[in-house]
Write a structure and sequence with these properties.
By secondary structure, this protein is an alpha+beta fold. The chain has four helices and eight strands, in the order ααββββββββαα. About 35% of the residues lie in helices and about 15% in strands.
Length: about 140
């Protein structure tokens, strides 16, 4: 294995829990209101990674990445949800950290209930549901850390 290739793999793994996690990662496109904003609750929307323009994703491990991370472009990496910064239409050029108050135990319960409703309405698949529930569990652990 060339040194360049090995370094590329290591860069792609940054923020993950090793190669095993990379192989088994499940992800869904992130569809959420701004995780940074406290004063408004805009309608949820899909997000784009500003660095590459690809769709932002959430993994079953509670990491935020983009479609480039597992597509072979190792210039993009996953980060813990709670460590991400966000820019929405309310603050387009100011990246704000995730608002931990929005993701308290009560917020995660509300998100879980909403997911159940989306599954019941067939707005999401069972696999997407399972992935997001796993992500919410990991995000809760990030809050505890």
């Amino acid at each position: 294995m060339s040194l360049f290739f090995k370094n590329s793999i290591l860069k792609g793994l940054k923020g993950l829990e090793g190669l095993k996690g990379l192989i088994q990662v499940k992800e869904v496109d992130l569809f959420i209101g701004c995780p940074a904003c406290d004063g408004h609750d805009k309608k949820p929307s899909f997000w784009r990674h500003c660095k590459c323009g690809k769709r932002t994703t959430i993994t079953d491990g509670g990491y935020v990445g983009c479609r480039n991370v597992r597509a072979g472009d190792y210039s993009c990496v996953d980060k813990k949800f709670m460590e991400c910064k966000w820019a929405c239409s309310e603050h387009k050029h100011t990246y704000k950290p995730t608002n931990s108050n929005k993701f308290s135990a009560a917020g995660i319960v509300r998100a879980s209930l909403r997911l159940g409703q989306m599954l019941k309405n067939k707005d999401i698949t069972e696999e997407q549901y399972d992935t997001v529930v796993d992500a919410l569990e990991k995000i809760a652990k990030q809050l505890d850390a």
